Amino acid sequence: MATSLKALPAERLAALSGAYASEMRAKRLNTLMFGAAIVIAAIASGWIAEVNLTKFVTHIGAFFSYFDRLATLDTGARVWTDIAEWFWGLKKWSLLLLDTMLIAYVGTIVGALGGFLLCFAASSNLMPNWWIRNAVKRFLEFCRTVPEIVFALIFVIAFGLGPIPGVLAIAIHTAGALGKLYSEVVENIDMKPVEGAVSSGGSWPEMIGFAVVPQVISNFASYTLLRFEINVRGAAVMGFVGAGGIGQDLIEAIRKFYYSDVSAILLLIIGTVMIIDLVTERLRHRLLGAGGQT
Questions:
Q1: Could you read off the pLDDT of 111-154 as tens digits, one per residue?
Q2: Which of 96, 98, 97, 74 is nearest to 86 (CA)?
Q3: For a Cys-Cys bond, which of 13, 191, 243, 261 suits 152, CB 3.0-4.6 Å?
Q4: 82 belongs to a structural domain
């Protein structure tokens, strides 16, 4: 059955059109003001931070020429024309890369364990004591606020060169970051199992073990895998301050202007991180899918 719409009177249509146009003008004005505020804030930030655009434009050519040198062997040929010469240190670099991955792995495991033990005391729905909860939160903030490289420098002074400073630096930073993420997961759990465990006389550790952990374990594992991927990149930088791994060879190649070595090591790091990213992404999706089905 065909239907027809009755046309509005001309005066009514003109009033509605005017109101619509006025509303759109107001929205465009707000958008322009917001954009102008962002631009002004960016310019002010650059001025306060003494960002020199003239220097940037003057040296932008040197930036791109560095990449050209990275793609050139000492003989003057392009690196891809002689792969054996380009990756002459593949065996040594592979062992150092494995060392980097092990540093990241151990640091992630230790840090995740620390974050797991602290996250429940930092959760507002499980820790009613304000002083304990905020003390744990501030401690986690301290762990993740201090950059890993600063921790590594401190531990290099204390323990000497080698992988131990790298492991400790990554573990502390990971505990702070994962403790924060874990506590946010815990604060969003279903409280009915918790209430059931408490009403049946369960202690605080029993309540955590039987009512909380089963709800959050898949998300915890997912965040831990994501953190491992991040830590592999972080562990590569730890070597810059003598904390073990392939970073030591990378910084040596940079300082000695061994351009083809720099590009070869960077390519190995990038390839390794990409493989880890693909594997952990698949695992994370499976864990979150399994967690969603429970």
A1: 999 999 999 999 988 888 999 999 999 999 999 999 888 998 89
A2: 74
A3: 243
A4: no
Of the candidates 235, 237, 215, 209, the residue with the CA atom closest to the CA atom of residue 291? 215
- Secondary structure string (H, E, C) spanning 52-101: CHHHHHHHHHHHHHHHHHHCECCCCCEHHHCHHHHCCCHHHHHHHHHHHH
**Would you state the structure tokens that stand for residue 34, as one six-digit string?**
């917001």
Query: Does the residue 18 lie in any domain?
Result: no
Residue 287 above 50 pLDDT? yes
The C-alpha atoms of residue 136 and residue 128 are separated, in whole angstroms, by 13
Q: Which of 93, 85, 95 is nearest to 260 (CA)?
A: 85
> Which CATH number covers residue 133?
1.10.3720.10
**Distant-in-sequence, close-in-space partners of 117: CB < 8 Å, separation ≥ 6:** none
Question: Structure pTM?
Answer: 0.78
Q: How many domains does the chain have?
A: 1
